[in-house]
What we know:
single chain; alpha+beta; Aminopeptidase; 7-stranded mixed sheet; 5 helices; globular
Amino acid sequence: MKIQNSTPSDIEAIALLYKHATALQNTKAAVPWPTFERSLIEREVEEKNQWKITIDGQIACVWATAFKDPLIWKERDQDPSVYLHRITTDPNFRGNNYVKEILFWAINYATSINKKFIRMDTVGENIGLINHYQKCGFSFLGLSKLVETNGLPLHYHNATVSLFEFELKS
């Protein structure tokens, strides 16, 4: 298993993984992701904020990072944090607990750039996902109703989000 930045040659695979994730969300009691603009993926790749886990040269899982997320995290966004977004796994690799691997990676990454928190959110109150993220090591901070969502993907509009955090110890 190898974790590294995604490259321009991965963009089509990333878009396909997002489509697979949306299809899975449509079969569960989850708010499905919209189709993400290719330009979003391209920008994240260019800015080195799109990541992948590869196994034997195949992309098993992808996610994005950010360092600001004020519309979701409001006043907490002032804290030095790494935000994880759109974690998705190739259907052939599901069930391998990559969120734990991503958290372990994120702890090292956040420490190296002097961040104190690793945070993520999910739209809605998906009890199964809340339990899964807690088992992986995140604290569930509760629900937050989003007010200002201009600039966020469509699935955030008029949404309530579940907030998760891992605090790095000094």
